Amino acid sequence: MAVGDVEAVGAHCQMEYCNQLDFLPFRCDSCHGTYCLDHRLETSHKCSKAGAWAKARTGRSTVSSTSSSPKPNILNHEKQCAATTCKTLVDTPLTPGVHCQTCNRRYCLKHRMKEDHGCSKLTPLGARPPTFSSAQKEKGMAALTKLKSWGLNKKAAMSNTTNLPILSKSTSRKSAASNLAATNALKTAAKGDAKVPVDKRVYLHVEASADTTKAKYPTGKFFYSKEWSVGRVLDVAAKALQVENINNRVVGEEERLRVFHVEGGRLVDFSEKLGDVVQTGNTIVLLRGVGPPVPDLIEA
Fold this sequence. Notes:
Layout: H1 3-9, E1 11-12, E2 21-22, E3 26-27, E4 34-35, H2 52-65, E5 98-100, E6 105-107, H3 134-162, H4 169-189, E7 201-208, E8 219-225, H5 230-241, E9 257-261, E10 266-268, E11 283-288
Parallel strand pairs: 7-11
Antiparallel strand pairs: 1-2, 3-4, 5-6, 7-8, 9-10, 9-11
């Protein structure tokens, strides 16, 4: 093969004093020169336009980011599909959002149809909170009356145990032993966040009212932190019992979950601290559509 044929295959390095023939030469994006492997970097061949390619690239990015229709940055995007079981972010470059004109919410493509996001059960955002129908009021009051009666019976049973005659010491010891055994059984079976310190835990029986809501697991035994708010406990309990919880997506009380403390005989407010309301061994019940808390349902 002739020398001319060999030189036709590659190119000579343009670096001064190098001029090496390279069969796979490198092209500098800044000065557009041709260099060998050793001098391909801008610092290696003392590029006369060092950084030009980077500046040009940055300029293009700036122009695109300041266009009239910027796309949202998914890293700073917080809007998610309004469907209760969906965590998909909408209005992103990859997932457009679809606005429902009926309930005034935005959904992903999967839940865009009314029947897919339960539109008929939702209160439109911005609309006036619906008033309870007479049937709904009766249903809620019946559930509260039943729980009030249950609470009264438990309170009476506890009072009878405390006021046992002095002569029945053996009965008193048996009752105390039975209560201790029940508490130990509750602590053994209870589930919860392992990160909660043992000295901060309160162990509870948790139920979902079958009269006002549906749950996959109607009852359970759980522990929570005494420092948690009742609202946080409600969210965790609803998830554990698999009760639909859309408190943060509804305006009125029709679909809102509330917490009833059986021993205290009242609905407790979301902002109350759990440790100020309940004690280990107590029972709380999740109800739906019973209205805001009304204190002191059970008289002292």
